Amino acid sequence: FGSEDKGRFNVQTIKNLHFLLEKNHHVLDTNREIVIESLRKMSEVVIWGDQHDSKVFDYFLENNLLALMIQYLGQENELRVQRQLIQTLSILIQNISNPTSLFFLLSNNYINDLIIHRFDFTQDDELLAHYVSFLKTIALRLNHTTVQFFFDKDKNEFPLYTQAVKFFNHHEGMVRIAVRTLSLTIYRTSEKGVLEFVLQPSRAHYFNDLVKDCALGLYRLHTTLATCETGSILVRMDTAVEDSLDQLYYVRDVMDVTPLHSGNRSLSTENSLIEEGEAKKQQNQNKNSESLLQPLHAISSLVVEHTLYWIALRMLFPSLVKNDTRKEKQNHENENENENENE
């Protein structure tokens, strides 16, 4: 947003967009493009105002334009409008530079309304990609202050996390990457309540599902490799091998997150230094901690097992490709010889 934008971006610009959205609060075939374009321009104007003119962002807040935008979620079968709404909010959250402006943007519960909205992703994979990217964008802006807007300790709810991990094994690679980035960002937070939520037995099944998915992926590679006879099939397997490797790297990153298990290690090392009565109390605390961390321990042991298997697979894989390539080359040479003989 340089000097060329000063002539077309000002308070009157956002007032005009406000008027258009209010006038077209119900989406029809005749006004759909107007709504989509107004939502798109809204992100440009608000970000420009955040950087150049605080009156623009003040107008955005004072007139509760976020609520006006969110109301389009209630209109069914408007996937294009919903997609643009998600894009607009993602751009705002990602690019707002003023901490106070970001605080006010995230503090409104309308963002959570969008997170928990039941989108119909079956009709539009692109909508899902934008949605998960939106969740990731929020997670990357979390800190000690803003995390409270998304994690409700009293209600034991954290939709930003629980909604995202539902798509951890989605067939689209970009969706999986976004989920991994989001989850690791949350695991690395220093908020005790967030980590306790993640490790609750009712939530920790995600770690078990993750390990099972790792094992299933490696098993599929094993069975496919055992039945491969041509180099072309093996070449197509390379993508699947890399996907499994990325998943194992992600699991390793989860295990490397210090806040998830460092407290448990420190408790166990201190047992030998405390008195007998306190030791029993500490032992009980350790048992409780172990019960929460059991899924992570399962990951640790299985990752070691499957990583060794993967190493063996990769050692075997190039040799098979090489052998099949030699066969193809030999067949090609034989064909050339036969053609020369015929000539």
Distance between the termini: 70 Å
The percentage of residues in β strands lies in: under 5%
What's the β-strand tally?
A: 0
Mean pLDDT, rounded to whole units? 78
Instruction: Provide the helix percentage.
Output: over 70%
Biggest sheet overview: none
**Poorly predicted segments:** 263-279, 285-293, 315-329
Whole-number radius of gyration? 27 Å
Entry keywords:
mainly alpha, 343 residues, 0% strand
Structure write-up:
The chain is mainly alpha-helical. Helices cover 74% and strands 0% of the residues. The chain contains 15 helices and no strands. Helix 2 crosses helix 3, helix 2 (32-52) packs parallel to helix 5 (79-95) and helix 5 (79-95) runs parallel beside helix 8. It is globular. The N and C termini lie far apart (70 Å).
Describe the SSE topology.
Blueprint: H1 11-23, H2 32-52, H3 54-62, H4 65-70, H5 79-95, H6 99-107, H7 110-116, H8 125-140, H9 159-164, H10 173-187, H11 192-198, H12 205-227, H13 231-256, H14 258-270, H15 276-342
Helix pairs in contact: 1-2, 2-3, 2-5, 5-8, 8-10, 10-13, 12-13, 12-15, 13-15, 14-15
Kindly summarize this structure in a few lines.
With 343 residues, the protein is mainly alpha-helical.
